[in-house]
Design goal:
Distance between the termini: 15 Å
Largest sheet: 8 strands, mixed
CATH superfamily of the largest domain: HUPs
CATH class of the largest domain: Alpha Beta
Number of strands: 20
CATH architecture of the largest domain: 3-Layer(aba) Sandwich
Low-confidence stretches: none
Radius of gyration: 30 Å
Strand content: 15-25%
Structural class: alpha/beta
Length: 643
């Protein structure tokens, strides 16, 4: 459970209805398999010791006694295993029969949780056999343990790990006010549901939606363990549809009509961080004391071998259709933002510095979409190309073709003469290719854009992206400044896909030029080309791979993870791309640049928020410009030394 990860499983055993010995044998097989796979908590379906479809056999003493005997056997045979087991069975208490979840650990029965909501409609008739669980919790003696809590008002705390989980049963999820709401408000970050949900047309989609939405609204992980093959098919068929979700995302899901284990790594730290940052999260225990009894389980903390998929590009969906839909939505947000600003100020002209690179290309794409929304003449898009010492024929040509393809008015202003005059004015040797040499060009370009905007009564549309802002890879009062920054919350890894999406929907020369821009190395082109006239100054050689920095940015800002945890995740996500030392080097550089360059973000122009990570000082990110990175770098070095 290092870094907050805990491996859990939903298990669907093969069953024989009313054969408690056979069923327990199958349960034990899956418990041992789960243990061998480093699972710490495994949850089985509703009434799995007997089978759910026993009907009036539930009223037979023989079945009730056999179920309790096999529960005791299950406890005895798993007494040496560090794994929490949650199983379902009918349990008789005070001459009433309850549909219960039993929580076992190392041979002890830690608690019995009765089902609260008993369906008695359609194909279900549970009230014929069972009594609904009430709010009162009793202490009872069982054949396994004494003073066992019996009732719905209990949560289970794995003390060393700080993991609090709760249990509800099948229909409890489907009602308007499910027990999971109270469990989560009392601190549970993980909810288990023991279910036996029959399969009918369309139900799998609805079930999936319920589990995902419940985990999202409660900022929790939700594990749904469903009954499968082996239940009676007299009137129903069961699919073993196991689902494990975390904060609205599906981590693992079984194939319908299959038995076995469904395993996932839950990130408890991520969930607690999410609750901490969400000011509307109402934790009942914080204000009025706990309503639920806490049952302590001494599950030891160990390092979890991760099976969890760690996407190397967290800003970019892996599914192509989802990515296409996302790109369309993002372009709509960007263009509506710009269109609204233009409409508000009564402006029909917009100016952009067009370099032939990715960021300015995306800005021009957004401008054209905005102009189309407003019904404006595209000639009001003023594209200014400003070649200087580092401009290559490739990027210059692409800028010109791009402007023509989008119908923009192109203006070329060569700035070599003015920059040389500026160097002469300040006494800078042009042969010294330092930061003054580079930034002098960037600021000259921004001055020109601002003045051109004044000439035509327009506004300057900024091109800088989120990744550049995070790293401070922008010239202060140069490309850092504009009147509206359409790319300010678009990370570099996503910029590329947005341009590619536009290319896929374009034709002719526009498509060709967009594809060539995508194939051009990322560069500010502030240093002279090489002897072959090719780009010599490549951004990623200087600041590091943008895919790494976007990864660090996402988990640092959005998730608030520790440097050691981010390092661990990055090593897994990029294990076939970068070695350990390369990741460590650029992660250190990320923290240094992120902290030292905050002053550039503190005075950003307006720009539309697109995703959940943005660095606007008026929106999601507020940070002093003088904060030190020492704590983060020291934590990273310590974690790397221990790794």
């Amino acid at each position: 459970m290092k870094d907050g990860f805990v491996k859990i499983a939903c298990a669907t055993p093969q069953l024989k209805v009313a054969d408690c010995v056979y069923n327990t044998d199958r349960i034990l097989e899956l418990v041992r398999e789960a243990y061998d796979r480093s699972v710490k908590i495994v949850c089985f379906p509703e009434l799995c010791i007997t089978g759910y479809t026993c009907g009036d056999l539930f009223l037979q003493e023989a079945l009730i006694s056999a179920a309790e005997e096999q529960l005791a056997r299950l406890a005895e045979e798993t007494a040496g295993l560090d794994i929490v087991i949650i199983v379902g069975l009918p349990y008789d208490y005070d001459d009433k029969l309850y549909n219960c979840a039993a929580v076992l650990y190392r041979g002890e029965l830690k608690g019995l949780v009765p089902k609260q909501h008993l369906p008695n409609y359609g194909e279900f008739y549970e009230r014929r056999h069972f009594t609904p669980g009430g709010r009162t919790t009793y202490l009872i003696d069982t054949a396994i343990s004494e003073d066992v809590k019996f009732g719905t008002d209990q949560v289970f705390l794995c003390t060393e790990a700080g993991l609090l989980f709760g249990v509800e049963i099948c229909e409890d999820l489907w009602v308007a006010d499910p027990p999971s709401v109270g469990l989560a408000r009392d601190g549970a970050t993980l909810i288990f549901n023991l279910s036996c949900s029959d399969e009918i047309i369309g139900k799998a989609d609805y079930r999936r939606m319920l589990v995902k939405s419940r985990s999202g609204s409660l900022l929790c992980a939700y594990a749904y363990a469903d009954a499968g093959i082996g239940e009676s098919t007299q009137d129903m068929v069961f699919a073993g549809h196991n689902i494990i979700c975390e904060n609205g995302s599906t981590l693992a899901e079984s194939k319908l009509f299959s038995n076995g284990l469904t395993v996932a790594d839950i990130d408890i730290q991520r969930l607690t961080n999410e609750r901490r940052r969400t000011s509307t999260w109402d934790c009942e225990a914080t204000f009025s004391g706990r309503e639920y009894d806490i049952i302590h389980i001494d599950l030891p903390v160990t390092e979890t071998p991760l099976d969890r998929d760690i996407a190397p590009h967290p800003f970019v969906p892996s599914d192509k259709q989802v990515l296409d839909d996302r790109c369309e939505e993002i372009l709509a947000i960007q263009s509506v933002g710009l269109a609204t600003r233009l409409q508000h100020i009564g402006c029909k002209n917009a100016v952009v510095g067009l370099s032939g690179g990715l960021d300015s290309t995306l800005a021009l794409i957004v401008m054209r979409h905005a102009f189309d929304r407003l019904g404006l003449d595209p000639s009001g898009m003023r594209a200014v190309t400003m070649p200087c010492f580092g401009t290559t024929d490739r990027t210059y040509t692409n800028a010109c073709k791009l402007a023509a393809a989008y119908g923009a008015t192109l203006k070329e202003i060569n700035i070599e003469k003015s920059v040389r005059q500026h160097f002469a004015d300040i006494g800078h040797d042009e042969r010294v290719h330092d930061v003054t040499y580079e930034n002098g060009q960037a600021r000259e370009r921004t001055q020109i854009l601002m003045d051109v905007a004044n000439q035509c009564g327009g506004i300057v549309v900024g091109t800088g992206d989120l990744s550049e802002l995070a790293l401070g890879w922008a010239t202060y009062n140069g490309d850092h400044m504009s009147m509206y920054g359409v790319n300010s919350s678009i990370p570099k890894t996503l910029v590329r896909y947005l341009v590619a999406y536009e290319a896929a929907h374009a034709g002719g020369e526009l498509r060709d030029v967009l594809l060539d821009i995508l194939d051009t190395p990322v560069s500010p082109e502030l240093l002279p080309p090489d002897k072959d006239g090719q780009i010599a100054q490549k951004t990623e050689d200087l600041v590091g791979p943008y895919e790494l920095h976007d990864f660090f940015l996402y988990y640092h800002v959005r998730m608030g993870f520790t440097p050691g945890k981010i390092f661990r995740l990055a090593r897994r996500a990029f294990e076939d791309v970068y070695d350990r030392e390369t990741i460590l080097k650029w992660q250190k550089k990320f923290y240094w640049r992120f902290f030292s360059q905050q002053f550039k973000r503190s005075c950003l122009p307006d720009g539309p928020k697109v995703g959940s990570v943005t660095l606007s000082p008026r929106g999601d990110w507020r940070m002093p410009s003088d904060a030190s990175a020492a704590v983060w770098i020291a934590a990273l070095e310590e974690a790397a030394a221990e790794d």
